[in-house]
Amino acid sequence: MTDQDWTSAWIDDAERPVDPMEELAITLGTEIRELREGLGWSRSMLVRRSGTARSWLTRLEDGNGLPSVVVLQRLASVMGKRLWITLIDERDRLPPRYSTGKEV
């Protein structure tokens, strides 16, 4: 590995631009996992109740995938929640829970 490769490998994440799709995947995955854990359910239980593949649920909760609205609705429904989607202006600030803390 060259010196340039090492330098690139150690760039602070704070300097990396925020990818909105990556941020969305992480936020959704965290929400689903917290809801599931709040119910005291294992991943296996949510998989059985929702009909979702375990591998997909694992990817989703780990922030490595974006589900369709249909899948989100199914997951929300089996956990006793309603899916609510709000579109906001990109210039609006997100609530602190969803903010990356990186202002542009």
UniProtKB/TrEMBL annotation:
The HTH cro/C1-type domain, residue ranges: 32-94
Annotated SUPFAM superfamilies: lambda repressor-like DNA-binding domains
Signal peptide coordinates: none
Gene3D superfamilies reported in the protein's UniProt record: lambda repressor-like DNA-binding domains
Family matches, as InterPro entries: Cro/C1-type_HTH, Lambda_DNA-bd_dom_sf
Protein name: Helix-turn-helix domain-containing protein
